[in-house]
Amino acid sequence: MSGSVRVTVWNEFRHEKKDKEVKKVYPDGMHAVIAGHLSEQEGITVRTATLDEPEHGLTDEVLANTDVLTWWGHVAHDEVKDEIVDRIHRRVLEGMGLICLHSAHFSKIFKKLMGTNCSLRWREAGEKERIWNIEPGHPITKGIGDYFELPNVEMYGERFDIPTPDKLVLISWFEGGEVFRSGCCWERGHGRIFYFRPGHETFPIFYDATVLKVITNAVRWTAPRIIKAHDCPSVKPLEEIKSKGLYP
Amino acid sequence: MSGSVRVTVWNEFRHEKKDKEVKKVYPDGMHAVIAGHLSEQEGITVRTATLDEPEHGLTDEVLANTDVLTWWGHVAHDEVKDEIVDRIHRRVLEGMGLICLHSAHFSKIFKKLMGTNCSLRWREAGEKERIWNIEPGHPITKGIGDYFELPNVEMYGERFDIPTPDKLVLISWFEGGEVFRSGCCWERGHGRIFYFRPGHETFPIFYDATVLKVITNAVRWTAPRIIKAHDCPSVKPLEEIKSKGLYP
Amino acid sequence: MSGSVRVTVWNEFRHEKKDKEVKKVYPDGMHAVIAGHLSEQEGITVRTATLDEPEHGLTDEVLANTDVLTWWGHVAHDEVKDEIVDRIHRRVLEGMGLICLHSAHFSKIFKKLMGTNCSLRWREAGEKERIWNIEPGHPITKGIGDYFELPNVEMYGERFDIPTPDKLVLISWFEGGEVFRSGCCWERGHGRIFYFRPGHETFPIFYDATVLKVITNAVRWTAPRIIKAHDCPSVKPLEEIKSKGLYP
Amino acid sequence: MSGSVRVTVWNEFRHEKKDKEVKKVYPDGMHAVIAGHLSEQEGITVRTATLDEPEHGLTDEVLANTDVLTWWGHVAHDEVKDEIVDRIHRRVLEGMGLICLHSAHFSKIFKKLMGTNCSLRWREAGEKERIWNIEPGHPITKGIGDYFELPNVEMYGERFDIPTPDKLVLISWFEGGEVFRSGCCWERGHGRIFYFRPGHETFPIFYDATVLKVITNAVRWTAPRIIKAHDCPSVKPLEEIKSKGLYP
Fold it and tell me: Which of C36, C78, C195, D110 is the most buried (most CB within 10 A)?
């Protein structure tokens, strides 16, 4: 697992093509901004992939050469083919890292890994968010201080219907009165998963330096520690068995 | 959630029809033995359902009147229709309890709730199993003592590919040299899930008094504490919002 | 564990004797208000105990007849004798429930059970608190709705230095901008522990109907499921041992 | 946290001085063997400390220059001064790693961090142990394969009275019929703790290559990610507070 962390930044890339306001913020798509930042970080190499490419840009070969996949989707979750979702799922269980951003809480791959509805309360009112770091020793929060603020966001509020995170690292405070578990870590199979709440198509969240720092930290944290294919072997005994059961 | 716990005991019910040896052990199917025992317990009412019934015996109406579903499947996991699996899944997330027995580790519903492969090592050699109670205060282990033994079993060994259980209550020792996390508790949505390792089509495991006690305890433990439908509401602010964002 | 839950409501009971403002709110002590409410609930019997009684009111006999202990302390944590703390600790590990209220985050018994500093940020500014229910299916949140509000409170903010809770059930939002894990569940030994943030000597928090409901629910949830004394037995083998080691 | 990991290998060092049989196995003490191995690993520097040194060899200065402390004690747990235990405890919560070996389950520092009795079943019969790796992706199990065996050991069996580990990585199978959670990870404060079962004064466990590999891996895993002193600050509001409470 030495060498560069090979990241594939995936984006639905629909809002940016159709919506003038979004295009102003992300002329080349959100993926371009995220990938641009990551590509400047030491020890990280980046490619991008989007929904409308063949196989959504996630061929077997691309995934075999991806250590960490970041995911942003919103209006077209249902257009992601089950076959590709299964392929990503298999790869995460083998050890690939997955970072789900903002509205990716409702993506097929996130729901498949969590096993729950992943629902929440929400509101688009441009309110302020303050994100508290409750695990200052965790690699994902390195360098972000006690909290950071985003001036205008879409709100996500509890109850967030997820399995209890293995580690909860960030909790959000919203101007309008809600709270949210905004940074959540899980391990599934041999892979690591990080859900990170910030991110939106019209608010320029992915230009925020702290948001980008968290994503970069998460790339390093979710990078594979092992890649191991799934099996379910029939095995020989390691000790002599004297019991024999009912049927010879 | 007062009144009886209404259990539906589900069984694939194929081995018992086709295999003479299995038929000898479970002439009316495993479900009949489990349901028979449960129906004698105070505060529990029981029905059964099997794969070859219409909708696998799990109509909307049956599920709406089921508090806890127990599941045994083995050779025909793939024949369980996705639509019915989705229906069970939705009901578990709303609060219904689910108890997965033995080879149900590979059932569609268990894998869908766990999000992992749920694979393991295995061996059919009729060996002895000793199941250790590591949580004597847990309702599921009530009355079973420090450990119990099964003289002849199919072995399941680690690594069991599951999310870290919310609570691990039983660990198995096998004569042939393996160990296994044999009693595992999770919460998903509002529902509780218990995986219990013992159970097999030819070894008469479901006649064992302690196995039946654990299943009975698990029925009480997984019984719903709430039933609540899933939603993802857009909500009004609870505090005045002064920030307004970029787009008026 | 049938019959009534026998609760001992413990209070430091110093502020109420010395401070005129506190006396106005709690003329007979906070314990009197909490105990008064609990004693009206079905299936709960209550006694109280305070710091200045002999053995802090927590003799061996009292503890042997206590199923759940609630704890409030603030200015005199250090005056609680280590010998009594050890006695409570032993009893919790045997199965007694413990509910730590507000400033009890710094009590000797809570820190001894957690193993951490249990520190936090704080402010006394009379601000508003909104407490979000993130586990609507948990017995402790039964009947409290999606959230409840307290108009004027002392603020506690993250990072709260505790072990990751087995289950986090409540998260607070504060007017001044912080968040806090306000309802936390742990199991230690055979006992259950609940930390509940609300409560203060001058704000009349313990008269709030929802606060009292949570405490009542927590009494039922922490009630012992087993009482079992600690041992560390040398045991005989259950299987024949052929290996013999180096030294005969 | 770059540079070498600075390890202090602590040993009670009493058996080795008094008991002829132990002296044969560990003429210079167990700490010498463990430290000898660690000192040959890249990026690790080692010192040792023992009970009978002044301040048990753990002065403020030594601890300030220790990233990871390994602990072995058995017959003299009670002779470790509370003041030194408090010092270690404080340092772990600040971020220092701690590795507790075998009979250190009953050490003051381990019990203080766990908050439980840490009791278990045990037997000295020289039996075989097989330790299963249930988390092949975890840094601590790197390179050890699916399992490893120790031909002659003292047995530790469940129930091990510990808080549910944040991550359970190893489970033991014993010839005599028991099982044990042999590799357990926790985080407390900013520090990481690993409990590792193998190790004994007469069986030459600390010469075993896989045992030494696990300890080496654990040194790297518990190495501090942050060092941060404890505080409990009174803080100013981040948002304007309009509520004012009862007392102006």
Answer: C195
